[in-house]
Write a structure and sequence with these properties.
Elements lengths: L7 E4 L16 E7 L7 E7 L2 H9 L9 E6 L14 E6 L2 E6 L8 E12 L2 E12 L11 E5 L4 E3 L4 E6 L12 E5 L4 E2 L9 E2 L5 E5 L2 H4 L4 H5 L9 E6 L15 E8 L12 E3 L9 E4 L6 H6 L1 E5 L2 E2 L2 E6 L4 E6 L7 E7 L28 E7 L3
Parallel strand pairs: 10-17
Antiparallel strand pairs: 1-2, 2-3, 3-6, 4-7, 5-6, 7-8, 9-11, 11-15, 12-13, 12-16, 14-15, 16-17, 18-19, 19-23, 20-21, 20-24, 22-23, 24-25
């Protein structure tokens, strides 16, 4: 649990044989801070001090060392004395600061003694520094638990050449080590699928949506990985994607339970997407009834929100987009009632189905054959009902 810092301390060295160590510019500063990427609780940060100190710290083979050591002890509430045993943890040099990261989260609201010592060899002697600070970690409200709210595609049957999945979280999540929290189980064989994902982290700007690529090199026929290792999914097999309970939000809140998505792999889809068999249900003018577009098969959830829009007179109409019925229906609700003007459903040709096929070409193409030229944008006119 992350602990916010309520006290920042700026302290000079208590004793020194160095003539420069008493200058205010060389004061050491010692404080608690919350760095969720390093610890669930508070860490101790040491900054300030003379340049000679930091030069010596950077040269140290390991920390703690005589040149720099931070010790944290909990203070007994009854006796007011610190425990004889120091808190276990690691020293870490980061961005010009010395950190002490406890091995276990510090207790909220408890009193701690923080002791910093340094024996610094200088050109004109030895600088001996010792600081002892007593402070209390704050009590904080428990963070809202992180949740994995949705996994798309939402269907329980996916083509064996499925390309992407989208994981939607309630909070911004920790990044940089996402694949440690993901695994794919082939329930038909009872074994974990080896190397199923393309290990590139693709996040939305708010850190709440993670795009999980099933490795394209294994999904595309004739490619080395597909030939050497085999496809990730096989038609007829049942699979479970498992998202670990240990995945934490940026604020330090873990999911708390494993999240599973079970599905069966169906036949591969290797044809280009076409609008020929889309069914459009137009709304009544003067209403805010959604425009509905029905597809014969699911399309890519994220691209349905970014590659399809409604225009009138060459201008986009503001409104809300929703994907329904396992991404087989697109609905658009305008912010203002529909007018009797002519409208157009505008589709970017890069809109894809679940296997990466788009309106211009299938995901797998024969590069030896000439490509048929197709428009970048498809426009379907419609008029509202009176």
């Amino acid at each position: 649990m992350a602990l916010a810092c309520i006290l920042a301390l700026s302290l000079a060295a208590c004793s020194s044989t160095s003539r420069d160590n008493s200058r205010s510019a060389n004061k050491y500063r010692l404080r608690f801070a919350s760095i969720p990427q390093l610890s669930q609780g508070s860490v101790v940060i040491l900054s300030g001090g003379p340049p000679e100190f930091w030069k010596a710290v950077r040269k140290a083979d390991s920390l703690p060392a005589p040149v720099a050591s931070i010790r944290v002890r909990i203070i007994d509430e009854q006796t007011g004395k610190p425990s004889p045993n120091a808190i276990l943890g690691k020293h870490r040099l980061e961005r010009g600061r010395l950190l002490f990261v406890p091995a276990f989260p510090l207790t909220e609201g408890a009193n701690y003694e923080i002791e910093f010592t340094s024996q610094l060899a200088l050109q004109h002697g030895t600088s001996s520094t010792r600081m002892t600070v007593g402070t209390r970690t704050p009590r904080t409200a428990k963070p809202t638990p992180a949740r994995l709210t949705n996994i798309h595609p939402s269907a329980d049957s996916l083509p064996e050449n499925q390309l992407k999945l989208y994981l939607l979280f309630s909070q911004p999540m920790e990044q940089g080590d996402a694949f440690r929290h993901l695994k794919l189980i082939d329930e038909t064989t009872g074994s974990e699928v080896p190397e199923p994902f393309r290990k590139v982290e693709l996040w939305s700007e708010d850190g709440k949506r993670f795009t999980l690529w099933i490795h394209p090199g294994r999904q595309k026929t004739g490619v080395n990985l597909n030939e050497d290792i085999g496809p990730v999914l096989q038609a007829g097999h049942r699979y479970t994607l498992i998202v670990s309970q240990d995945w934490r939000s940026v604020g330090g809140s873990a999911l708390g339970r494993d999240v599973r998505k079970a599905f069966i792999a169906g036949p591969a889809i290797r044809r280009r997407v076409t609008t020929d068999d889309w069914k459009i249900t137009v709304p009544k003018s003067g209403s805010r009834t959604p425009l509905r577009v029905r597809f014969p098969a699911p399309l890519d959830w994220a691209l349905l929100h970014s590659r399809v829009r409604v225009e009138s007179g060459g201008r986009g109409i503001p409104g809300t987009i929703r994907a329904h019925d396992q991404e087989t229906e697109w609905r658009f609700t305008p912010d203002s009632p529909w007018t009797e003007e002519k409208h157009e459903l505008v589709i970017d040709a890069l809109l894809e189905d679940l296997a990466g096929n788009n309106l211009k070409q299938p995901f797998e193409v024969d590069i030896r054959k000439p490509r048929e030229k197709r428009p970048d944008v498809i426009r379907i006119p419609f008029e509202t009902r009176r």
